[in-house]
Structure formats: C-alpha cells, structure tokens
Amino acid sequence: ATGYINGTLVVLARGGVIADSQNGTISPVIDDRDWRVVLTWGASPSDLDSHLTGPLAGSTGRFHVYWNDRGSSSFLPYARLDVDERYGYGPETITINRPINGTFRYSVHDYSNSDLSVSSALAFSGAQARVYRGNSLLKTYAVPAQFGTLWTVFEIREGTLTDINRMGYSGSSFSIATEPELPEAADSPRLWLDLPSKSATNQREP
Predict the structure, then answer these.
(1) Second label for 204, Cα 20 to 30 Å away, from 14, 72, 91, 126?
(2) Pick from 76, 94, 75: nearest CA to 156
(3) What separation, in Å, do the N-terminal and C-terminal C-alpha atoms of the chain show?
C-alpha cells in the first residue's frame, strides 16, 4: 500500500482447522534514521503493554514511554506510543524519532496478569516484537517459553541492536523503571498494587 512499509505474511489454510494468531500488520513508512517496534500477540492475555525507556537530550535522566505517558514525536522525548491496545492481538507500535546516543530499552509487560507472582500467560501469548530501522525489518523477536510477566526484549546501544530476551516479573507498569527488573521471588511482597488503573484518557486517540 502506498505510504506503508512492504511486508509479507505466510498464512496456513487447512480444511476443518481454525488457526489462531494469523493476523498481519503493515506499518507507515518512517525516516531512515528512525526506529519502530511493532508488538503483536494472540487473543490472550487481552492486555500486553509496550514500554520504552531511553536517554533525554541535554539531561542525565531517562524517559519512560508507555500507556500512561505516551510521549511525543515532535518534542522530547521524540518517542511515542501510537496505540495502546487492550483487547488482544495488537498491534502496539512505538516509534523513536531523532534517536540520540545512549541506551534505549524495550520491554513487554503482561498487564492482564501483573498481580500474579507466577504466570505463563505471556509465554503462551504468541507475542512477537518486530524491529524496524527506517523501512527495513531488522529482526523479529518471539517471546521465550518461560514464566514471567515482564519480557525485556532488547536494547539499542549507541545505534546498535542488542538482544536481551529475558523474562522476569513486575507487579505494575509504574515499577518498570529505567533498568530491567530482576526476576522476583514468588514470596516477595507485591508492590504498587493500589496504583490507579488505566483510564479512558490514556487510551486510543480518535
């Protein structure tokens, strides 16, 4: 389609068989220097969330783009969550405009099961994260078959894509800080559980 990155999708068609998770996605073209991550998954869990942390120009701090702070493509942090999808499948897309030197980190949080200390729902979600630089697909990550509610997928270090692909636990979107959290013991105290839930003001734009 005009104005979109070319893509292909292999579809399985067998008589009498219903195959889930065969939705395709296409993404608008971006500048050659920009990055984009496209997250897709199956029907369950209904709500997986994309999280991006990264450096702030002229500051020692770091930004955190996610459903509660969707960022901006036209001013700092020059990174934006385009859509927060709460009803399965995705896609959720984050685009990094005007990337600067430093480390960007991308993670996927199982919001639907964030109050669980043991969960395999994310591992069986069929989640995939596709990473684009400009209009070229660099890599596709598949969620590891391991327990966890937080999938730390990759880092972009000084412009180089670096695999992380680690599973752990996080009790809340707010606790996904600037560094990936270590796997949490099953009997550890659960923090952040009384923080506000998602509201309509943080969701999809018209």
Answers:
(1) 126
(2) 94
(3) 22
Identify whether the C-beta of residue 152 lies closer than 8 Å to the C-beta of residue 107.
yes
Peptide bond into 180 cis (omega under 30): no
Which tokens hold the place of 99? 């990337």
- Residue type for position 25: T
Q: Find the mean pLDDT for residues 70-93.
A: 92
Question: pLDDT tens digits for 108-145?
Answer: 999 999 999 899 999 999 999 999 999 999 999 999 99
Is-above-0.70 flag for pTM?
Answer: yes
Closest to 137 measured CA to CA, from 20, 26, 14: 26
For residues 168 and 181, is the Cβ–Cβ distance under 8 A? yes
- Write down the number of H helices and E strands in the chain: 0, 11
**pLDDT for res 26:** 84
